[in-house]
Write a structure and sequence with these properties.
Radius of gyration: 21 Å
Number of helices: 18
Order of helices and strands: HHHEHHHHHHHHHHEHHHHH
Oligomer: single chain
Strand order of the largest sheet: 1-2
Shape: globular
Strand content: under 5%
Number of strands: 2
Largest sheet: 2 strands, antiparallel
Length: about 425
Amino acid sequence: MSDQNLSSNQTDQLDLVYGLNDRPRPIIAFLAAFQHLLAIIVPIVTPGLLICLALGVSKEDTNMILSMSLVISGIATFLQCKKVGPFGAGLLIVQGTSFNFIGPIIGIGSAMVAAGTPVESVMAAIFGVVIAGSFIEMGVSRILPWVKMLITPLVTGIVVLLIGLTLIKEGLISMGGGYQAMSNNTFANADNLIMSCTVLALIIILNRIRITWVKSSAILIALIVGYVLAGFMGHLDFSGLQDAPLVQIPTPMHFGLDFSWSLFIPMAFIYLVTSLEAIGDITATSKLSNQPVDGATWMERIKGGVLVNGANSFLAGIFNTFPSSVFAQNNGVIQLTGVASRYVGIWIAALLVILGLLPAVAGVIQAVPQAVLGGAVMVMFGAVAASGINILSGIHLDRRALLIIAISLALGLGVAQVPQILE
């Protein structure tokens, strides 16, 4: 290798305080893990909370679902960091509940509820589809090179962009107070708009501050302020804590199992896209950890990471929560701290499982008014759309690509706005 290439490779290397296989002292590992927790705990529980609120799931069952979101995320994070056999990438990777599936689950689930299907039966069908779809992702992990040829960055970028754009409607509904506010004529009243706009404004302001840890924790800080504001305005509801046990015992198939083809078809394609998103996130983590981003070692990490994506979604369906995927948030924390040790990930996993087994944590989160949550999810959903744009920006957009984008956006957004066209 030439001196110029050596110099270039050294320049690309991140100056790490703790490398991939270093073992920080317990106090340092805990503090690094806590910083990751600040960045991920809200995104992990938000999808489940939005789905439960939209479908009218009982507070007790919502509490269980949120708790299991944390537990399942902890198990997946452990597998990704520890690497057990073929499972896991062996990197400091955090995994949590995916935003990609919210749209079809809420859309089709709400239609089933409106048609008179009991909420418990709807949840049984959703979790049956979650389990069935997980085998798609596990299968994809074994044939990744072929799938990458079939599902190009153009396709992935369009789908991710469409997911973000269609979710923005749900974000606006949350800002106004949610579906419950629509039914009791309090939607978009002064209180709901004050709470949601305060949270949204705080996230924008905090992201302008040049302190990196403040930026990475902006959503959590803004939600805490919104939570306090909601308390002063008398809008905190702790009824979800009344009958909650001291410890949440995981209960397999609490709702039973069912299946819905109308939900499975869109979910199957989203599982494919989520697999390809994971490739990008794992590659970014590998680069930040000063590990290879091509070759046999990299491909083994990719396959193991995507396999855990699917296997953990299988576990999620069994234990009554929603599909999970690799998170990108932890890459920013690795850059902030210079800690890429995968042993920190084991601390993160332990913290997630402990929090998930304490129903009081889910109860406190569930108490937040949906308007407060809405101010944050508008940013999260916008970030999903921006991620799709970012993927598309790396592609040469010739006439053919622009035509594909135009037709996809027109039909995708059109059907989302006027679903009756498919009746």
